[in-house]
C-alpha cells in the first residue's frame, strides 16, 4: 500500500507564509475545491438540492460564504465550491451524492493555488497586478482576472483581505509577481 | 476597448479573444449541406467598413461567447449579446 | 562653479530651493544647480547655452523651450546600462550626481567635425535622400545608409542591459484630467469637491503649469501660490489622485488612456524594489484635456542660434527658475504675450535692449554668433536695418493649443482666426472634453472658466452636481497678428529645428508639387522624430499656405498619434523581459527532475523535462538513447501532466463529442478510451488525443500540450454558438491531476506494486480507463500508449504527483525504471509513426496522415464535409511515410524536401518534405517522418532528401511510418 506525501503548490510540505512590508501572502493548503455546473434545464433542481446540502449558489461576480460550503460564480450556471480540505478531501464525491444528476461536478482542488492576501489596504498592490477596480467593488465580489499573464480568480473579502486562486503549476511565478508588486506598492 | 458584457458589465477587450463574423454561428448541417454551402460558410464573409456583428470570447473571464455589434471605423460598440441567445434566436438547438 | 546667470534671490527667487546645492556634469564639466531645476535651467544658470548639434547640419543649438516640446536640447543622461539618449534637457529633473552628455557631435560639442554639413547645406536640402541615393541600388545598405546613420542622427544606445525595473498598472476614475495648469487644476478641484473619483496627471514634477512661469495674480495671490493651494486641497481629498511626473501618452478606445509615471527618473538610482517608470492603463468615464498651449517660433534667417528661444520660455526660466538666459536681451513678437517677457525680464533687472514688434512693422531679419547669439539685425518699418548686440532673443509667433491627444482618434483640428491657430475639432475621442489654452482659451480667466465648465459638464453627465466659483485672473487677449516667416535674404530660416527643415525646404517641396500637408511632411521630414513637430508643424504648413496662396484651413494640418512624448522601450515591456518574460508552468515532477540535474525545454509556458542525464553522460544523445532503450527493454516513466485535460459532462456529452471529433465517441463503452481526431471546419486536422468515458455522462478528453487552450475555446464555441441546447458542461482539469506515462514491457509489473486494484490484461485491457486507488488515494488509470509499448497513464491529485513518482521508482526498483523526457518521447513516437507537432501543422488532413478512415461520414462533425473537397482527397496527395537513409551513417534534416533521383532541386520537382527526424537507437540510424506526394504507393522506393540550406542531399528509403513493431504486439502485451 502506498502512503503518499503531499506537496503544496509552492513545492513544500507546509503551506508558505510570506511577508513583504505590510503584506502577508498565506498559501492555503486546506481548501478543497470542486466545480458545480447545472445540467441543462435543471437549475431549479440544482437550487433545491444545493440548499439542502448547505451549498450557496451566488449571483454572477459574487462569492457567498456558508457551512460547510462556500461558493463563487465563475461561468453562467457554474460555480467553484470551497470546503475545508480536512473534512472534504473527497469533495467531488460528496457533491455528486448531494446534487445527483442535477449538476455536473468536477474535482478542482489541485487545479489551483489558493493565496490569501492581507494588508491594511490592498488597493495599491492590486492596481499593479490586475485591472479590477478594487476600491469600487463591494466585499464578496468575485471575478476572473489576469495577473502577469495568468488567469486567476480574485475574491474580495474586505479592503485588506483577498483570496486569489491562480493556476497551480504557475504558483511560484504568481507569488513572485505579487512580491515584486508589493515592493513597488509600499 | 471596453466591451459591456451582458452579465458582467464593462470589461477590457484585453480579456477577450476575437474570432470573426457572427455568421460563423450559421453552420449548415453536415448531413444535408454539401461542399459548396460549407465553403460559403467557412470562407465567404462581408467585410464592412461600419457596423459589424462579430464574435468575441471572454477567455479571461466567464468563457461566454458574445456577439458584439461594433463599428469597425469608429470602434463604437452599440450592442452586446450572449452568443448562445443569438444562436437560439436563429433557431439553433442541438 | 558659480551660477553666473542666476538672478539674485532678492529680485526673483523662483521655485527652486537655493538652500540646497546639487552637483552635476555636462560633457564631463562639473556644474551646480538647485532642487527644482531642470538640466536646461541649471545649465543656463551656469551660462551654458550650447547643448547640442542639429540633426542634419550639425548646427550648434541650445534650448528653445522650457517644456516637453523641446526640439534641440537633446542629451544623453546617465551612464552604463542606464544611459538614455534623446532626453530633453528642458524636462530632465536635476539630481545630485547627474551625468549628462551632448550628442550627435564629434569630437566635441564646441568643435564638431560634421559641422561641414552646414557648409554643404545645398546638398542636404529636402528630398536629398530620395534623389541622391537612388543608384546604384546595392550601395544603399553597404555604403549610404551606414554613413547617413552616423552623420545624421540622434543619441546612441547603450549595449548594456538596463538594470532598472519597469511596471504596468491599472487605474479607474470618473474623470481623468490631463494637465495641471489653471484649467486642469480647477477642473480637478470642481470634480473632486463634487465627490467624483478624479485622476489629475501632469508631466511636470510641479503642478501649476504656466502659473509657475508667470508673475500675474490669481485670486489675489501669485499664480504659483494659488496653484499650490489648490494642489494642497486636492491632496486632502480621498477621491482625488494626484500624479506628478506622469505623461498621458495616448487616448485609446472607450475612455482608456495610457500614462507613463516617471517614478524614479529624478533620483540617481531607483529606491530598491521600486520601478523606474510605470505604464498606467487608465479607465475613465470622462476625461478633460487641459494640456495648455505651445508657443511657436517665427522663421527668419539664422533663427536657430543658441540664445534664441521662445519668449515664453525666456520668462519661464526667469520667473520659475531664477535664471536669466542672457545679460542683454531682445524680444521679437507678433502678439501681446511676447511683451510680457520684456516686462518680466526688466522687473528682474535684466537689460532688455530691444522689443521688436512685427505689428509695428519691425522684424528681426538675421543674427550672428558662431556658438551662440551675439547680435541681431532689425529692419524697421521704413526698411532701414540696424544691428544690436544681444546674447538672448525671445521670439513669440503666437500660441498653438496643444491638441495632440485630442487628435489620437483622427480628429482634425480646425482653424481659429482670432488666435491664428488650430483648435480641437468636434470629432475627438468620445468622452474627452478640452479646456483651457488647449481649447483655445489663452487667457488665465478663460482657462479657469473653461476648466470649471468642462468639469461641471463631465460630472453632471455622471449624475452629480458640481458648482464652482472662479478666482479673479487676467483676461487679456494676445492680439496676435500672424507672421510665419520674415521675407528677407537667401539664408536659411528654420521652421522645424529638430529636423533642420527651413523655409527653403518648404519652397522646394512646393516647387516639386509636394503641396499637401502629408506630402510636405514626408518630403521634408517636417514634424518627425522625438518632438513630432510640436513647435514646427503649424508654421511649416502656414508657410506652405502662404507660398501656394491658399488659406491655412484649405492647406489643412497633419495630426498626431500616440505617444505624446517618447516612451522608453522598457516601459512598454514592463516586467515582461528576461526570465520574467512570461510565467512558468512547472510539472509535478519538476522538483524531482531538478534534483537529478535534468535538462528542461520550454513548451508554451511549461518547463518539461527534456532528458535526465546520468553520471558520466556528456552528450545529450547518450541520455536520450539510454532512456529509449531502457524503456523498450523494461520500463520508463514520463510526466505527461502538460497534456490538456478537459472534463466533459452532461447527458449530451457523447453526442457533443461526435460533433467535435471526426470519429465516434457516443458508442464508446464506459471504462474505455479511444484515440480521437479533431478537425477544423476547413477539414484540416486541428488536434488529437485520447478521450476516455469515465461514466455514462462523463468523459475526460486529452489534447496536445500546445492546443489545450485553443481546443477548450473551440469546444465552448461549439457548445454555445452551434449547439446551444446540448446538455454539456466543460471544465479544464489539466492542472488538477499529475499524470505519468508508464511504458515498457514491465510497465504493468511496476504499477502492480503501486496500485490497489487488479490491473491484469483481463481486468484492465488495452484502451481501458477507470478510477482506481493508490494506497487508498483516489487515482485514475488509462491503458494507452504513445510509445508503442505496453503502457499506462496513471493520474493522482497534483499534490501527490511528486510522491507517486518517487514511489514508483522506489517500489519498482527491481525493474530498473528510467524517467524519460520529451526527447525520448519524440524518438519513440516517431519510431512508432505517431503524429505530433511537425505533422499537426495546420495544413494537413486526416488522409495526409494516413488516418482518412477515421473521418466518419455517418454523422455530422466539424470539418467532415470540407475534408472531402477535391483538393484534399487527391489520389496522389501527401501521405505520411517513414524515411531512413540508405547509408545508415547519413544525416537527415527535418524540412528537407523529397526529390526523385536526378531531379533538379526546383519547386516543380518537389515531392514533399520531412516533418520530424530523430536518431533511432533500435534501427541504428536516423529516421524521419515526412509528407510525400503519393507516398502510400512509394513504400520501398528510394528518393533523395535535399536540404539546400544545410547542403545535404541524402539518398533515402521510403518506408512505412510504423517503423517499430508495426503489428502493435508490444502494446497489447
- Report the structural category of chain C: alpha+beta
Give the CATH class of the largest domain in chain C: Alpha Beta
CATH class of the largest domain in chain A: Alpha Beta
Alpha-carbon distance between the termini of chain C?
Answer: 91 Å
Tell me the CATH architecture of the largest domain in chain C.
3-Layer(bba) Sandwich
Low-confidence segments of chain C, given as residue ranges, are none
For the record, the count of structural domains of chain C works out to: 6
Instruction: State which percent range the strand residues of chain C make up.
Output: 25-35%
Report the uncertain regions of chain A: none
Q: What is the overall silhouette of chain C?
A: elongated
Mean pLDDT figure of chain A: 97
Short description:
The complex is a heterotrimer of chains A (186), B (94) and C (973). With 186 residues, chain A is of the alpha+beta class. Chain A has helices at 43-53, 85-88, 91-99, 123-126, 171-185; strands spanning 17-20, 23-28, 31-38, 63-64, 70-75, 78-84, 103-107, 112-118, 142-147, 150-158, 161-167.
Describe this structure as you would to a colleague:
Chain A is an alpha+beta fold and 186 residues long. Chain A has helices spanning 43-53, 85-88, 91-99, 123-126, 171-185, and strands at residues 17-20, 23-28, 31-38, 63-64, 70-75, 78-84, 103-107, 112-118, 142-147, 150-158, 161-167. Chain A has a six-stranded antiparallel sheet with strand order 1-2-8-11-10-9, covered by helices on one side. Chain A has a five-stranded antiparallel sheet with strand order 4-5-6-3-7. Chain B has one domain (2-89): Folate-binding superfamily (Folate-binding fold), CATH 3.30.2270. In chain B, the strands form two sheets. In chain B, strands 3-4-5-6 form a four-stranded antiparallel sheet. Chain B is globular. The model of chain B has no long low-confidence stretch (mean pLDDT 97). Chain C folds into six domains: 22-132, 2Fe-2S iron-sulphur cluster binding domain, sarcosine oxidase, alpha subunit, N-terminal domain (Ubiquitin-like (UB roll)), CATH 3.10.20.440; 166-292 and 402-461, FAD/NAD(P)-binding domain (3-Layer(bba) Sandwich), CATH 3.50.50.60; 294-377 and 384-398 and 479-555, Arc Repressor Mutant, subunit A (Orthogonal Bundle); 582-642 and 739-832, 2-Layer Sandwich (Gyrase A, domain 2); 644-733, Alpha-Beta Plaits (2-Layer Sandwich), CATH 3.30.70.1400; 873-959, Beta Barrel (Elongation Factor Tu (Ef-tu), domain 3), CATH 2.40.30.110. The radius of gyration of chain C is 37 Å and the shape is elongated. Chain C is built from 21 helices and 49 strands. With 973 residues, chain C is of the alpha+beta class. Chains in contact: A-B, A-C, B-C. Chains A and C meet through β3, β7 and α5 of A and β8, β15, β30, β38 and α20 of C.
Amino acid at each position: 500500500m502506498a502512503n503518499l506525501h503531499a506537496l503544496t503548490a509552492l513545492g513544500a510540505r507546509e503551506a508558505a507564509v510570506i511577508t513583504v512590508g505590510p503584506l502577508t501572502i498565506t498559501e492555503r493548503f486546506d481548501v478543497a475545491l470542486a466545480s458545480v455546473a447545472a445540467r441543462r434545464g435543471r437549475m431549479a433542481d440544482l437550487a433545491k438540492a444545493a440548499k439542502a446540502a448547505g451549498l450557496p449558489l451566488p449571483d454572477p461576480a459574487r462569492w457567498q460564504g456558508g457551512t460547510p460550503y462556500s461558493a463563487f460564480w465563475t461561468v453562467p450556471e457554474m460555480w467553484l465550491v470551497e470546503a475545508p480540505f480536512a473534512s472534504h478531501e473527497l469533495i467531488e464525491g460528496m457533491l455528486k451524492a448531494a446534487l445527483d444528476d442535477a449538476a455536473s461536478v468536477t474535482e478542482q482542488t489541485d487545479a489551483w493555488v489558493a493565496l490569501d492576501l492581507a494588508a491594511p489596504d490592498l488597493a495599491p498592490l492590486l492596481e499593479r497586478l490586475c485591472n479590477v477596480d478594487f476600491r469600487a467593488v463591494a466585499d464578496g465580489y468575485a471575478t476572473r482576472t489576469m495577473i502577469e499573464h495568468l488567469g486567476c480568480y480574485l475574491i474580495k473579502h474586505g479592503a485588506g483581505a483577498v483570496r486569489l486562486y491562480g493556476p497551480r503549476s504557475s504558483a511560484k511565478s504568481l507569488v513572485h509577481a505579487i512580491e515584486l508588486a508589493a515592493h513597488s506598492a509600499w | 476597448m471596453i466591451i459591456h458584457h451582458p452579465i458582467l458589465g464593462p470589461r477590457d477587450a484585453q480579456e477577450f479573444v476575437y474570432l470573426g463574423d457572427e455568421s460563423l454561428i450559421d453552420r449548415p448541417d453536415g448531413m444535408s449541406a454539401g461542399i459548396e454551402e460549407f465553403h460559403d460558410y467557412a470562407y465567404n464573409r462581408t467585410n464592412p467598413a461600419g457596423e459589424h456583428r462579430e464574435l468575441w470570447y471572454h477567455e479571461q473571464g466567464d468563457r461566454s461567447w458574445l456577439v458584439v455589434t461594433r463599428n469597425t471605423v469608429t470602434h463604437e460598440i452599440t450592442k452586446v449579446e450572449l452568443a448562445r441567445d443569438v444562436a437560439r434566436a436563429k433557431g439553433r438547438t442541438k | 562653479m558659480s551660477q553666473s546667470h542666476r538672478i539674485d534671490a532678492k529680485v526673483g527667487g523662483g521655485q527652486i530651493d537655493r538652500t540646497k546645492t546639487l552637483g552635476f556634469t555636462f560633457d564631463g564639466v562639473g556644474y551646480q544647480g538647485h532642487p527644482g531645476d531642470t538640466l536646461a535651467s541649471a545649465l543656463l544658470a551656469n551660462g551654458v547655452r550650447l547643448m547640442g548639434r542639429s540633426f542634419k547640419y550639425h548646427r550648434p543649438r541650445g534650448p528653445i523651450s522650457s517644456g516637453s516640446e523641446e526640439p534641440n536640447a537633446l542629451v544623453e543622461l546617465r551612464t552604463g546600462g542606464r544611459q538614455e539618449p534623446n532626453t530633453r534637457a528642458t524636462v530632465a529633473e536635476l539630481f545630485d550626481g547627474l551625468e549628462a552628455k551632448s550628442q550627435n557631435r564629434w569630437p566635441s560639442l564646441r568643435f564638431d567635425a560634421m559641422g561641414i554639413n552646414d557648409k554643404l547645406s545645398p546638398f542636404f536640402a529636402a528630398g536629398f535622400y530620395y534623389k541622391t541615393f537612388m543608384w546604384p541600388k546595392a550601395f544603399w545598405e553597404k555604403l549610404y545608409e551606414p554613413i547617413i546613420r552616423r552623420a545624421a542622427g540622434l543619441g546612441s544606445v547603450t549595449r548594456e542591459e538596463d538594470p532598472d525595473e519597469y511596471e504596468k498598472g491599472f487605474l479607474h476614475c470618473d474623470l481623468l484630467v490631463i494637465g495641471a495648469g489653471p484649467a486642469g487644476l480647477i477642473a480637478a478641484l470642481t470634480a473632486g469637491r463634487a465627490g467624483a473619483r478624479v485622476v489629475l496627471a501632469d508631466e511636470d514634477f510641479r503642478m501649476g503649469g504656466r502659473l509657475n512661469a508667470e508673475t500675474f495674480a490669481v485670486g489675489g495671490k501669485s499664480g504659483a501660490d494659488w496653484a499650490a493651494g489648490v494642489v494642497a486641497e486636492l491632496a486632502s481629498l480621498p477621491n482625488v489622485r494626484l500624479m506628478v511626473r506622469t505623461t498621458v501618452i495616448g487616448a485609446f478606445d472607450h475612455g482608456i488612456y495610457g500614462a507613463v509615471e516617471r517614478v524614479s527618473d529624478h533620483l540617481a538610482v531607483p529606491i530598491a524594489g521600486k520601478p523606474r517608470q510605470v505604464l498606467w492603463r487608465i479607465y475613465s468615464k470622462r476625461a478633460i484635456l487641459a494640456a495648455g498651449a505651445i508657443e511657436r517660433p517665427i522663421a527668419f534667417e539664422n533663427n536657430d542660434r543658441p540664445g534664441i528661444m521662445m519668449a515664453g520660455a525666456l520668462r519661464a526660466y526667469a520667473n520659475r527658475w531664477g535664471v536669466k538666459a542672457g545679460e542683454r536681451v531682445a524680444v521679437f513678437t507678433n502678439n501681446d504675450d511676447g511683451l510680457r517677457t520684456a516686462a518680466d525680464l526688466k522687473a528682474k533687472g535684466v537689460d532688455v535692449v530691444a522689443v521688436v514688434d512685427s505689428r509695428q512693422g519691425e522684424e528681426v531679419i538675421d543674427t550672428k554668433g558662431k556658438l551662440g547669439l551675439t547680435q541681431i539685425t532689425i529692419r524697421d518699418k521704413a526698411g532701414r536695418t540696424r544691428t544690436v548686440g544681444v546674447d538672448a532673443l525671445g521670439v513669440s509667433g503666437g500660441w498653438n493649443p496643444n491638441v495632440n491627444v485630442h487628435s489620437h482618434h483622427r480628429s482634425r483640428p480646425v482653424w481659429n482666426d482670432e488666435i491664428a491657430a488650430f483648435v480641437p475639432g468636434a470629432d475627438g475621442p468620445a468622452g474627452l472634453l478640452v479646456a483651457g489654452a488647449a481649447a483655445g482659451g489663452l487667457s488665465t480667466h478663460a482657462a479657469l472658466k473653461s476648466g470649471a465648465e468642462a468639469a461641471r459638464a463631465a460630472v453632471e453627465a455622471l449624475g452629480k452636481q458640481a458648482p464652482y466659483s472662479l478666482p479673479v485672473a487676467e483676461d487679456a487677449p494676445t492680439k496676435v497678428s500672424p507672421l510665419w516667416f520674415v521675407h528677407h535674404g537667401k539664408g536659411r530660416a528654420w521652421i522645424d529645428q529638430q529636423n533642420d527643415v527651413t523655409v527653403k525646404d518648404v519652397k522646394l517641396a512646393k516647387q516639386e508639387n509636394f503641396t499637401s500637408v502629408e506630402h510636405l511632411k514626408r518630403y521634408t521630414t517636417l514634424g518627425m522624430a522625438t518632438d513630432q513637430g510640436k513647435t514646427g508643424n503649424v508654421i511649416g504648413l502656414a508657410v506652405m499656405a502662404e507660398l501656394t496662396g491658399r488659406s491655412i484651413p484649405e492647406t489643412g494640418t497633419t495630426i498626431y498619434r500616440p505617444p505624446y512624448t517618447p516612451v522608453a522601450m522598457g516601459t512598454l515591456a514592463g516586467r515582461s523581459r528576461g526570465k520574467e518574460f512570461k510565467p512558468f508552468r512547472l510539472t509535478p515532477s519538476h522538483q524531482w527532475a531538478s534534483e537529478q540535474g535534468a535538462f528542461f525545454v520550454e513548451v508554451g509556458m511549461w518547463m518539461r523535462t527534456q532528458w535526465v542525464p546520468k553520471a558520466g553522460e556528456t552528450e545529450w544523445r547518450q541520455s536520450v538513447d539510454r532512456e529509449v532503450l531502457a524503456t523498450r527493454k523494461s520500463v520508463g516513466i514520463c510526466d505527461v501532466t502538460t497534456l490538456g485535460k478537459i472534463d466533459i459532462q452532461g447527458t449530451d456529452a457523447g453526442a457533443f463529442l461526435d460533433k467535435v471529433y471526426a470519429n465516434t465517441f457516443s458508442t464508446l463503452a464506459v471504462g474505455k478510451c479511444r484515440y480521437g481526431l479533431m478537425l477544423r471546419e476547413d477539414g484540416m486536422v486541428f488536434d488529437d488525443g485520447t478521450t476516455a468515458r469515465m461514466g455514462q455522462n462523463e468523459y475526460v478528453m486529452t489534447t496536445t500540450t500546445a492546443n489545450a487552450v485553443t481546443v477548450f475555446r473551440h469546444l465552448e464555441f461549439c457548445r454555445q454558438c452551434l449547439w446551444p441546447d446540448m446538455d454539456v458542461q466543460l471544465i479544464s482539469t489539466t492542472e488538477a491531476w499529475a499524470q505519468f506515462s508508464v511504458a515498457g514491457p514491465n510497465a504493468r509489473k511496476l504499477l502492480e506494486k503501486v496500485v490497489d486494484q487488479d490491473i491484469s490484461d483481463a481486468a484492465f485491457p488495452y484502451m481501458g480507463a477507470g478510477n482506481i486507488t493508490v494506497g487508498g488515494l483516489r487515482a485514475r488509470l488509462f491503458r494507452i500508449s504513445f510509445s508503442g509499448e505496453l503502457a499506462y497513464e496513471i493520474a493522482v491529485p497534483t499534490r501527490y504527483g511528486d510522491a507517486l513518482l518517487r514511489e514508483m521508482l522506489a517500489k519498482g526498483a527491481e525493474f530498473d525504471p528510467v524517467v524519460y523526457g520529451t526527447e525520448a518521447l519524440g524518438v519513440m513516437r516517431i519510431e512508432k509513426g505517431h503524429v505530433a507537432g511537425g505533422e499537426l501543422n495546420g495544413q494537413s488532413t486526416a488522409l495526409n496522415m494516413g488516418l482518412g478512415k477515421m473521418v466518419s461520414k455517418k454523422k455530422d462533425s466539424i470539418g467532415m464535409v470540407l475534408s472531402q473537397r477535391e483538393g484534399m482527397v487527391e489520389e496522389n496527395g501527401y501521405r505520411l511515410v517513414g524515411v531512413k537513409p540508405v547509408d545508415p551513417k547519413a544525416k537527415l534534416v527535418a524540412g528537407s524536401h523529397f526529390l526523385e533521383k536526378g531531379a533538379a532541386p526546383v519547386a516543380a520537382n518537389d515531392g514533399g518534405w520531412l516533418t520530424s527526424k530523430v536518431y533511432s537507437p533500435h534501427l541504428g540510424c536516423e529516421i524521419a517522418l515526412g509528407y510525400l506526394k503519393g507516398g502510400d504507393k512509394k513504400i520501398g522506393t528510394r528518393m533523395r532528401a535535399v536540404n539546400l540550406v544545410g547542403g545535404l542531399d541524402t539518398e533515402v528509403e521510403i518506408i512505412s511510418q510504423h517503423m517499430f513493431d508495426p503489428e502493435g504486439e508490444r502494446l497489447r502485451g
